[in-house]
Amino acid sequence: MKIKTEYKVGFVGIVTILVLYFGIMFLKGKDIFNVETNYYAVFDNVSGLYKSNYIYLNGMKVGYIKNITMIDHSARKFLIQIAITSDIQIPNDSKIMIFSADMLGSKALKIDMGISKTLFQKRDTIESGVENGIIDQLSNNITPVVVKLNNVMSHFDTLLVNVNNVLDEKTQNDIKSSMENINIATKNLKTLSINMDNLIAEEKIKLKEIISNVNHLTNTLNNNSNALTNAINNFSNISDTVAKANLGNTIRQTNLSINSLSQILQSINRGEGSVGLLIKDDKLYKNLETSTKKLDALIEDIKQNPKKYINLSIF
Prior knowledge:
There is one protein chain. Helices cover about 60% and strands about 15% of the residues. It is α/β, with parallel strands linked by helices. Among the domains are: about 1-35; about 35-130, Beta Barrel (Elongation Factor Tu (Ef-tu), domain 3); about 260-295, no CATH class. A seven-stranded mixed β-barrel has the order 1-4-3-2-6-5-7. The radius of gyration is 64 Å and the shape is rod-shaped.
């Protein structure tokens, strides 16, 4: 039995259409041979989400976005229809979360499984949410910084304008002169530093000797610490003895004695009293001298002529 050409063409066309259909479905990420369960989720913002984007559960692809539609004309709410593999059972306290699928910030949906024993039914609406990834957190943190940086740049521009207004030709010349003075001062400091280095190098030996003497003195003090301690204790005992000796009364008595001696010496200087007359009166001195000479002559005459003065009678 021969098959007509028209039948052959029709059969090839049907096969081609089926292959094309399944190919397109496969490219869209749809598994034709698996039964799907449709659910819904409502989001305020669907930026980065597109039809056929995958839906993940603990990192595994379990479905895809089937459709995205606006709920109202102001585009404040969006209804997303999702298709999940039928063998995935979703508790009714689960959430559909938007998250960053890669470091470039591409968006995708994932199922955040709950713990309820009651399950969502086909075409139920699942609670939605947004998970901030690293890129989102960086964006949120960078935005205030960028705003502040813009403010700083605007203030900096204003500052530059003010500086340009202040820095006239005279001010610039003054600044140049100041910089030259600073260079001169720097050179002087450098020269001073070199001289100090040379001085330290020249006096290095003396410094070593001084340090050696200090070390020797320290060692000597350490070696004679006991003797120093005894000396300090003796000095302390002497201080205690002096304190107990009523030194103040002794000093007062000494002052009185010195005052009395001073008065006696003043009286003698004025020629008062025997001692004063002896010191001040020349006649008394001369009489004493004459009497002394006569006494010496008498003693000498007695030595030479004892019989003249001494009579011995023998009975």
